[in-house]
């Protein structure tokens, strides 16, 4: 069979059975016959199982993304707009009104952010239109010009050079573009998680195309059949990364294909659990920042969201509402003792649930899923707020815990032995402030401070308003440990000696105070900035950003820094790392545009706090654990 035949055959591959069932059960009532023919029920042939190494490549002839006629989104618009209004929290009502106006085209003066060129290079940024741009412009026809620093100008050049094109269109950014790197491994790929800060930088600059393309192309990869040693992971799985490859069809013809990595080539075969969660978060951000909600209303996009949610909400053996994952399933994608219920995954899961609740069209076929989402949101926030929270008072409580309690209303529910409290923590925990634990399992608390999980809990309101404040208080009190010479430590403290040997498996890349083992990652600046802005403390983010700005350009935008205080460029750190560059730019843009930043975080949702489905609260022999909980979690 010639390559061209192979590609033709591949292009007719069917979506999986699950995908097909979901599509038809969800939309059977409003699909016109022609739509069903073009998008859903193509004349598929059998799976090309014999082409094991090539069948996962996506031929460009399959990249037809705009398959849905306009009337579909028009028809759904009125329903989904009202649903979006309904599902946003009380505090967000004003923002949502504006969103509504944008969708139905009532805003005569949209917000425009443009970059100003002086012929050769960009010298500044102009913001015009809108109602209030940050707190600097009060009248809608004024224009603010902010001059870009040298570092920003260079950062934009690097970011633009990192753009990956597929059939001529921008679809993402490579992880790193280090000209001196002779062995880029997979750093020449587009990583889903790495692209998020790039996407936000582009969106905040007013460029939506690359983000839209990214969302639609990765969506196509989601439904692709994937196998790791003959085992197929769940259908909703999003790849960790993808690469654009050129394949030769015959002597004169080549064709570009997208080649995803679902973990089957990744070091350690880690599962990219966070990819789908980030994809959903980015989809919402795209709508919020561009006002183009038609993307999230598309049938194929709605199905993508449902597949991810179904995968996350599938029944298993779990006893907790937290998501159970293997080690290395997020930004820390190597063995680091974060298997089980790591905080980073829980906070991303929580925001993905909130985004889905906001974006999913409610109809007969999605009712059950939406109900499951609401229940999980409520149970998850209770569990994290109640059991993951530590401050000086809670540590003292754990220090005096009784163990081996057998009852439903035990104080020490997880049977934590007080000897587990690490000696460093007793000295380290400040009087003011607290944080969420890194992980919680039976008889196991991981007391390390994990930065991304804590910041994203603030951003998504997984933690209570008081806990959010306390997390920032802790950062302030422990500035030298978490920020030091370069923001921000990925976690604190490092695993040393036997802990390093046993928990990392003697990983030479993750030696103490390096890389994932308490290295400092400048990309985390954008999440920190968002958390600080949400809590009305932008000056903290500005201070950290100024530190980074002093060094990043001179150091050639490293991936991470090493040592306790983040003084040295990481020993195996890539240079010109795209998410370092993009995290820096996104932080700058967020600080300059608070109105835009506010669209990216969530306020407390009081509706969720009232949901309790356990049915035990009324009376009876057993008590609802939420009611029985000693801690006051509903902090208003
Ligand atoms: C490293 C990081 C991972 C990142 C990848 C590409 O593996 O641990 O989070 O996505 O590099 O930058």
Features:
636 residues, alpha+beta, 4-stranded antiparallel β-sheet, 25 helices, 43% helix, globular, disordered N terminus, binds alpha-D-glucopyranose
Strand order of the largest sheet: 1-9-8-7
The biggest sheet amounts to: 4 strands, antiparallel
Rg estimate, integer Å:
24 Å
Label the structural class: alpha+beta
Shape: globular
What is the number of helical segments per DSSP (H or I, 4+ residues)?
25
What is the strand tally? 17
Q: What's the pLDDT, averaged over the residues?
A: 81
Q: What's the gist of this structure?
A:
It is built from 25 helices and 17 strands. By secondary structure, it is of the alpha+beta class.
Protein described:
43% of the residues lie in helices and 11% in strands. By secondary structure, it is of the alpha+beta class. α7 runs parallel beside α9. The longest helix is centred in the middle third of the chain and has 22 residues. Alpha-D-glucopyranose binds next to α7.
